[in-house]
Amino acid sequence: METQKTILITAGPTREKIDAVRFITNRSTGKMGYALAKAAVNQNFRVILISGVTNLPKVDGTEFIQIESAAEMAEVVKKYADSADFIIMSAAVADYRPKFVHANKMKKTDGDLTLILERTEDILKYLGENKKPNQLLIGFAAETDDLIANAKGKLERKNLDYIIANDVSKSDRGFGSDNNAVTILKRDGSREDINLLDKSALAEILITKICGN
Ligand code: CTP
Fold first, then answer.
1. What is the pLDDT, as a whole number, of residue 1?
2. DSSP class of 144
3. For the chain, is the Cβ count within 10 Å smaller at the N or the C terminus?
4. Nearest CA residue ID for atom 24, ligand 1
5. C-alpha of residue 15 to centroid of ligand 1, in Å
C-alpha cells in the first residue's frame, strides 16, 4: 500500500487588529480553500487545514487549526510545513497590518485619523525559499488586471511549482461566489484553463491534476 500523502491548505481571510474591537480584513470567505480541503479528504490525503475566521463549518476528516492574523498563520504554517508533501496557499493573507495596535478601544476625535501600516511576512515566499525536497508549492493569484502576467511573476518570485490564477474583477466568480474559473500555470511555462464551475467540482479537478499520481 502506498503511504498517505499530506496536503497543507490555508484558507480564508486574515484579520489584522487596529484596537480591542476593530480590525482590517478582506472579502475572502474561505469557500475555495474549504472546497479544496474537502476534495483532498475525498481523495484520501491527510489534510491539515489552517484557516482564518470564516462562517463555514469545519471540514470533516481534516486536522483543523484556526488562526486570525497573518503572523499567526505564518507561525502555524511553518510548524507544519515540513510534514507536507503539498502546500496550497489559498488564504487571502493581509500584506499589511497596523504598525501600532491599541490595547483598548480607541476614542474618536474631531480630526482625521492616520493609520500606519507595516508589511506582514510573505508566507509563501518564505516557503519557496525553504522548500523541502519533493515538496510541491501551490499559490493563488487573485488579480483584477493583467491576470496571467501578474500570476507568472508571483510564481517566479516565490519559487512555486503551480499558481492558480483567479480573476476577481467579475462578480460571477472568485471572492464570495459559489463558482470559480481559473488558469493553472506551471513552473515549466505550460498553462491550462478551467472554465466556470462550482467550487467543489473545481476543487476536485485541481486536487486531481496537482496532487494526483
Ligand atoms: N501570501 C502569503 N503571505 C502573504 C501574502 C500572500 O503567503 N503575506 C500568498 C497567498 O496565500 C497567495 C499568494 O501569496 O497564495 C498571493 O500572492 P501576493 O503576491 O501576495 O498577492 P497579493 O496579496 O494579491 O499582492 P500583490 O498583488 O499586491 O502582489
1. 62
2. S
3. N
4. 142
5. 15
